[in-house]
Amino acid sequence: MIIAIDGPAGAGKSTVSKIVAQKLGFLYIDTGAMYRALTLKVLGEKVDIEDTVGIIEVAKSTVIDLVNNPDSSLRILLDGKDVSRDIRQPYISRFVSDIAKIKEVRKVMLGLQRVLGGQRDCVLDGRDIGTVVFPEADKKFYLDANLSERTRRRHKELQDSGQDTSLSDVELDIHNRDTIDSTRKIAPLKKAEDAVCIDTTKMTISEVVDKVLEEIKK
Ligand code: CDP
Q1: Ligand 1 centroid from CA 96, angstroms
Q2: Looking at residue 38, what DSSP letter applies?
Q3: Which pLDDT score, from 0 to 100, does residue 189 have?
Q4: CATH placement of domain 2-208
Q5: What pLDDT was estimated at residue 38?
Q6: pTM of the predicted structure, to 2 decimals
Q7: Are 188 and 97 in contact (CB under 8 A)?
Q8: Ligand 1 mean position to 122 CA, how many Å?
Q9: In the chain, where the domains are located
């Protein structure tokens, strides 16, 4: 069984997906983390962000793996190295959407995501899971929330992990990524026609999880 959970930054996708996967005993695949890991490598190797050919080369020669820990946390491995924490830094967020809009990069990720998702029951979260990666998913969700609530959540997450950023910087980042992600030519962020839409603005995590589980059981 494949559960697809898409939506913009800060809508609660990864938190909800992780809990839902754990409750169902499914594999959790954070596809955004894969784009983030690639961005970390590209920036680390000082490839120019405008150098599309160079970025594609890096994408083709990089090994990204996701490991689900028993405690439901997720480890992101970049060429065998754990980068779970590094990929959440604001400078990665600033460039990830420019890298994720490159057609060949998406092709590499798509292949990887289909292999990972084809192995066993899983929950995948991202931007194009229900529309492009697994259009035949058994159940699709589109999580959304208004910009100020999404900003508040992401800001809190960053503060909790010891990263000091201002609310206005976080809002700008989310707004910029939303714009690039939803207007790109290949696999833009949009609700799949058959996705269940949940506005999480006024909902707690457990309310969203319950709603998702209830829909899956239907
Ligand atoms: O957690 P957050 O919502 O900030 O974003 P993420 O899920 O970590 O994804 C980071 C970025 O990767 C997004 O802004 C997109 O540019 C890209 N992405 C994508 O293009 N397609 C996906 N399936 C997942 C992420």
Answers
A1: 7
A2: H
A3: 97
A4: 3.40.50.300
A5: 98
A6: 0.96
A7: no
A8: 18
A9: 2-208
